[in-house]
Amino acid sequence: MDEIDAIEHEVSIMGKRHAAGIEALKLVQKNRGWISDDSLYAIAELLQMTVSQLEGIATFYNLIYRQPVGRYVIHVCDSISCYLTGYQAVSEAIKAQLGIGYGQTTEDGMFTLLTNACLGSCDKAPAMMIGEDHFEHLTPQSARDILQQLQQERGKKPETTQK
């Protein structure tokens, strides 16, 4: 099923074209990795929405990416629960391991690091999400171990860039 067919399927479920906006964005992002301006315009036209309406949806949801991201997008929760249970130390360990700051992507395109206001793991804080996987009760060492495992799967330590 191509993207247009998949979006039309979502429209048939939602009943109204504009109601399928977030699902359309998620479908295109799943195939392409992020939502380019061209993709945004095409989706808006298909759903008979204005580009501004769809952009509003895209920028509201922090899991829709409007610029290229790495193979692994890391969302580190910075809610008050995570902050009080070790967020800062975990955050510093992740940044040091990857050699990048928030909003940056490693030079090899493997990791993008972002914050997230809440991952719904307040009772298991600190937490992070990589792709669809949640990691909870993090320590600086457990966060480094998770990243090292992903790096080893790729076979090399990522080169970094400061943007």
Query: What is the strand tally?
Result: 4
User: How many angstroms does the end-to-end distance come to?
Assistant: 37 Å
Shape: elongated
Percentage of residues in helical conformation = 40-55%
Query: Any idea what the CATH superfamily of the largest domain is called?
Result: Glutaredoxin
User: CATH architecture of the largest domain, please?
Assistant: 3-Layer(aba) Sandwich
CATH class of the largest domain: Alpha Beta
User: How much strand content do the residues show?
Assistant: 5-15%
Arrangement of strands in the largest sheet: 2-1-3-4
**Number of separate helices:** 7
Can you give the mean pLDDT?
92
Computed over alpha carbons, the radius of gyration is 18 Å
Q: Given the helix and strand composition, which structural class is it?
A: alpha+beta
Order of helices and strands: HHHHEHHEEEH
- Domains counted in the coordinates: how many? 2
Largest sheet: 4 strands, mixed
Contiguous uncertain segments of 5+ residues: none
The CATH topology of the largest domain turns out to be: Glutaredoxin
Description:
- The protein has seven helices and four strands, in the order H-H-H-H-E-H-H-E-E-E-H.
- The chain is α+β, with helices and mostly antiparallel strands and 163 residues long.
- Helix 1 packs antiparallel against helix 2 (21-32).
- The chain is 47% helix and 11% strand.
- The chain is elongated, with a radius of gyration of 18 Å.
- The protein folds into two domains: 3-60, Orthogonal Bundle (Arc Repressor Mutant, subunit A); 72-154, Glutaredoxin.
- The model has no long low-confidence stretch (mean pLDDT 92).
- It has helices at residues 3-14, 21-32, 37-46, 51-60, 80-84, 87-98, 140-154; strands at residues 72-77, 111-116, 128-130, 133-135.
- The protein has a four-stranded mixed beta sheet with strand order 2-1-3-4, with helices on one face.
